Amino acid sequence: MNTKVRDLIVTNAAAIIAGLLLSGLMLLLLHINPVEVFVYSINTMFSDKYTMGEVFLKATPLIFTALAFAFTFKANLFNIGAQGQFYMGSIAAIALSLQLDGKVPTAVLLILVCLTAALAGGLMGALIGFLKARFKANEFLVSMMSTYVALAVMNYLLRTFLKESKGEYPQTDAISRSAWLPVIVKGTRLHIGFVLAVLAAVGIWVLLYKTPLGYRIRAVGSNASASRMSGIDSNKIFVAAFFISGALAGAAGFTEVNGVQHMLIQDFNSGVGSAGLGIAILANANPIGIIFASLLFGALNVMGNLMGRMPGVNVPASIVDLMQGFVMLFVIISYFFRHYLENRREKRRLQKGA
Amino acid sequence: MNTPFFELKNVSKYFARVVANKDISFSINRGEVLALLGENGAGKSTVMKILYGLYKADEGQILMDGKEQKITSPKDAMALGISMIQQHFSLVSAHTVTENIILGNVKVVIDYEKCKKEVEELSSQYGFQIPVDAKVEGLAVGVQQKVEILKALYLKTSLLIMDEPTAVLTPQESETLMEFVKEYTARGNSVIFITHKMKEVMEVADRIIVMRNGRLTGDLSAKETNEVELTRLMMGKEMVPPKREQAEEQKEKKVCLELSSVTVQRKGEPPLLSDLSFQIMEGEVFGVAGVSGNGQEELCEVVCGALPVTSGKVLLNGTDITSTSIRERIDQGIGYVPVDRYRDAMVGEMTLAENMMLKTSFDKKWISHGFLNKKKLQNDTQHAINEFDIKAPGPDAQIKGLSGGNQQKVILAREVGNAGKVLIMDQPTRGLDLGAINNIHNNILAERKNGKGILLVSTELSEIFQLCDRIAVIYKGSFMGIYDHDKLNTERIGLLMAGYKEEKEA
């Protein structure tokens, strides 16, 4: 047990460092001193409270979308449409917030909006599950394409019913402060949505591993035929799993609209679906691992932004993607490396014992 | 003494958590048939995969004609004249026989006609009648195996390894295979047979290697040993065959399960089951004998609720359950051990404990305070492990890591627990080794004693005769008759299974 935990920490740390080193090499090719920019960005991140808050802020929607992918993944289903479900959640969140803004107390508004956003994402997801159950449609393709439908719906609404009252840009009006998610650390933008995301991750873990429904979802995912013979209706499971998955992505729409942007604009957070997918794979679809992987991605994102804004040096903006890509690559390699270490240890033990 | 053709010296192989082979040493001479005998999981396939270059040995060496060889891939092995026919054939089913045989051995432009001729010549050498232009998917299993053999011969193989070659064959097909082996070795080639069937070992092998738990337990000449000795070496203990007690008193027994005029038919097709009627009493083993594929699986699925009937009724203790779902029937106490456990009865990625609750995932007994009661599940599973003598690291081990026999015991343990009234078993011992078969037979008889109605489908006549009180013979979806177990002999049942109806009871 101890050696396992040690391996986990050591290999992951090594992977992150290796990813940063390789990114540094890229900077070196641009005649930028990587040590200088890394030290600057890391120092700023850890010393400045606001920036630290940004790390958690950026991680929040990623936790949700990563959970969305991970949850169906456990049922051997692929929900590639988290982005679309996120849009549906965002639309529901902004529409309802604008309606209720100033009419009901903040707490009531936030709870209602949260549930509605989750429901909107969930219904979008359930539709995919239903198509799979009823017509045996391939959920991979349907979910992937559903994102474009959601995007089109969002763009349409931004130009029509939800368009700002000034009528200038394809965006909504901003919601007033009473509809904002409360900030939990003074001097930062970090809102209560992060706590919600962590609770969701724990909740999903409990649901999957501690409840009969989660058990059945995993059983159908691994062997649908044996599940049928055991009296489990896999069609119901498909719809339920996709509903929950979609609801998680929809909830990200709520935290982003009410917590960060306070309005809906075109091209709203267009990368959160795909980033969530990557994070879920990085964390091996483990809900608790997703929290940490999302924080790592949040940190890389913030670091990249800091580097880009560093006075005197000209770091390209794409450094964010580079760092995320390299770190992800090495973390995945480290996963196989740990497996190899574990195997070798077991083998040695047997050789000695025999 | 002359140098052996191939020799293995102190070969060991460790997998994570398991010692697969430890200090295995044996040799094979030219023109010899060597049988590698052992229970499932004894390490037979592993040591052969080392010889064939699929696995790398952690310790030890391989010698050919006295010289050490490094075999790191099947390609190396083939270069030395070693070929291995896996239990599951490696043929491209959409390709023709010829294409399959030349696969991997042709470069640039394929002269199909020339290759075809070569294959035809090769096949006629051994008297094989194989349609060289036919697609593999349309061929019978026995013929597919011959294609595999030809593939090896095409590579000029002089040591042929066959992993459980007769497991999928009919008795006649096995016969032809044995003839081939004799002819092939008469030409100075060698054959290694991996098997756990005693009969064919005694029939064809010159020498027998016995393995148990990854170690060599015997290296014997076939002439100087017997089945009893081999069994002991293989199992490590004497085996006591189960004994079926006669029903003590002829008490009036209650009807447990009843089918009346059950027919299953899809539109425009011949019926899968036609007009089946029978009753199973409490404490009775009702056997269904027949060649597989004559409606046995459908019959079982009708009883467990997976297959709806076209007409007829299913009654459990006198109550009509014809239209109830699988889930309702599980709740009413019908247990089912299906023929294909990988597909229908277990979730390989899940643990033993999780598999134990597969059938009863809706049952309140696994829940405390709204969550799964892991402790109860663990305890129940540990109890089953002890009671059914399941060899497993523990309740938290993944079931796919267990041997086939132990997986089957887990499923049996679960179904026996679920089956309050009726237990359906479709070929419960298929592909298992002697120890596991014995264990399962004993459990079936124990359940009989507990007063359950048992429907046992089997293609093994010995199993049917050993366990059943009454025997029905099924042919093309209908019963050829229902007989008391002592009214039938092998010959008679054989004719019935082949569809020859008797005119009158003798």
Would you write up a description of this structure?
The complex is a heterodimer of chains A (354) and B (506). With 354 residues, chain A is mainly α. Chain A is built from 13 helices and no strands. Chain A has a domain at 60-289. The longest helix of chain A is centred in the C-terminal third of the chain and has 35 residues, at 319-353. The radius of gyration of chain A is 22 Å and the shape is globular. The relative contact order of chain A is 0.19. The model of chain A has no long low-confidence stretch (mean pLDDT 91). Chain B has three domains: 1-81 and 158-236, Rossmann fold (3-Layer(aba) Sandwich), CATH 3.40.50.300; 90-156; 255-347 and 419-497, P-loop containing nucleotide triphosphate hydrolases (Rossmann fold), CATH 3.40.50. Chain B contains 17 helices and 22 strands. Chain B has helices spanning 44-51, 74-79, 97-102, 112-125, 141-154, 171-186, 198-204, 227-235, 296-304, 326-331, 341-344, 352-356, 374-387, 404-418, 434-449, 461-467, 490-497, and strands at residues 6-15, 18-28, 33-38, 59-64, 67-69, 82-85, 159-163, 190-195, 207-212, 215-221, 255-264, 273-281, 285-289, 311-316, 319-320, 334-337, 367-368, 371-372, 422-426, 453-458, 470-475, 478-484. Chain B has a six-stranded mixed beta sheet, with helices on both faces. In chain B, strands 16-19-20-13-21-22 form a six-stranded mixed beta sheet, with helices on both faces. In chain B, a hairpin with an 8-residue loop joins strand 11 (255-264) and strand 12 (273-281). In chain B, helix 14 packs parallel to helix 15. The model of chain B has no long low-confidence stretch (mean pLDDT 86). Classes of the chains: A mainly alpha (354), B alpha/beta (506). The interface between A and B is medium-sized, with 26 and 39 residues.
